Structures are given as structure tokens and as C-alpha cells.
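By way of example, we now present a protein record of this kind:
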Amino acid sequence: MTTPPPTPGIHHVTCIAGDPQRNLDFWVETLGLRLVKRSINQDDPETYHFFFADAEGTPGTSMTFFPWENMTQGKVGSGQVSRTAFRVPEGSLDFWEDRFDAHDVEYDDRVERFGETVLPFRDPDGLPVELVAVEIPEDDPTVPWTEFVDEDVAIRGFHSVTLWLADPQSTTDLLETMGLEEQGTEQSPGDTPGDERTRYAAAGPVGAYVDVLPTVEGGRQGHGTVHHVAFQTPTDDDQEAMRSAVQSAGLRPTAQIDRHWFRSVYFREPSGVLFELATSGPGYTSDEPLSELGGRLVLPGKFEGRRDQIAAALTDVTVPTSETAVADD
């Protein structure tokens, strides 16, 4: 078997929300991310699919949501992504705690993990999220969105995801097949006593880390949980090589599926977490100018012909702007 090119890291993370307006307000206004695509779940077109990212929708920065309003509350457990962490500049966590206080965001005390300071919090649906203070290099590929927060404190793409797994060994073997390398193991604050967290690092500067934590705690999918995590396979050739490697490892990846802004392959890793492989292109500006990203409902491909029917089934939402936020104060 030919070894595939290593993944540069996380491409996007897709989660399940409840109320779509509340989801927009929190991720745009409170956290300061840009809505780079307002679309639909292509497998359930009467549900929105929101994409929040940096100013340009750079791979490694997109947190996306399916707001399934009628789904029940979920519970994080084994076989899930238990935490999603974002990078923020060193020295910015005081700002974020003050902002969370002002916006009534639930957050926990800071912890130290692998030599970095982590601020855990939850979004309005109870989704566990973290901010990790890191040094942002001058040549960092992310482009901060500054409508609601300044550049020196803005979120700069993913830091990591944490996987809760009943039997980590097969999954860690898969991560190594994907090109991630073990970085070390520690007993981290806040983790279950006796369970050690192991960190794996990908090749790229953004979304490089996957932490693996053993747990047998039961969970269920619903509001406040992660639906899947996608890893970058920048080109079609990269993706096909990774797909072949995954298949050779005994897993069952799908054929490539065109998701309009990237092309995807899906499979469940040995402990049940849904993984995706996603190409870098054609990107979010393939159907909207950069200056207009997220400004309208975009219906990819065959769905455009059903616009009236689809739009009628969706809840009306308003994307927050700095002007409307000032007007509301």
C-alpha cells in the first residue's frame, strides 16, 4: 500500500444546534466569526447549514452547524468528538472572559494542558468548546474577521479536537495512517482521574492536533454535540490516496461526494466517530464574491430549482452585523 500524503489537519467540524437564530447570534456576534456560507443540509434540505470561519473561509477555520430544531438535547460520550478547541492569540484570554461575562456565556476556570492555557466554555446549546492561547506566527494562513472583535484577540482557526474513545488503540493506529504523529501523554486537569490524554499532531499550522482520551461514558447525538470532524486532503489525488489507505485499514469509506465547496469522503473510525476527508477547493468564493460571503441563502446544484419550496420551509433568520448590534444596545 502506498503511504498517502499526511493530512495538514482539521478542515472543518460540523455540529448540531437547536434554534438557528440563537446559533447565528452566538457564533457571529459573541465569538466574532464570519458567516461565510448560509446554505442547507444537502441530505436534509429543509434544514440550514451554517458555516462560520475566518474572514476568507480558510481551510482549518470552519465551524459548521445543522440547526435541527426538533431534535432533543444530546449528551457527549464515548465515540464522539467531546471538545472542539480554537486558537486565540497569547494574552487574549482576559478579553474573552470579560466578553463571556458580558454575554452570559457559561465558562470554566482556565487549565494548563501540554504547556498551553485553555479556557473551556459552552455555546447556547451546551456544546463544549475551548479557546487555547497560542503564539500566532506572522505568516499564519488565517485571516481574522474583525467586525465584532479586534484582530489581536480574534479566533484564528482550529487548535484541536478531543476524541472520547472506549478502545483508543485502533483509532490511534488510524491517526498514524493519516499522517498524525504522537506528541506525548499527560494527565490533564479536568480529565477523569487515571485516564491519560494522548496528543497527535498533523502536518499543518492550523487544526493540527487530535487529543485521544479513553472513556466508556455513554452519549447520544443531539443538540450540543459534534456530528463529524473533517480532515484536509487538499487535492483529489491526496484524497483518493487517503481513502485507499483507510480502506486498506479495514474501514468502509464512501465514494467521493461533491459538496459544492469541497469534495468529501466519509467513514466511521473504529470507535464510531464520523470522519470526513475534504478537499481544499473549490472553496466558499466559488459561488459568492469574498465581500458578500454569507449574505444570502446559497442553494448548491440541483437545489436551486427548488428555492421557493426550500426557503418556505426554513426559519427566517437575520445575520448579526456590528450596526445592528449597536442599535440593539
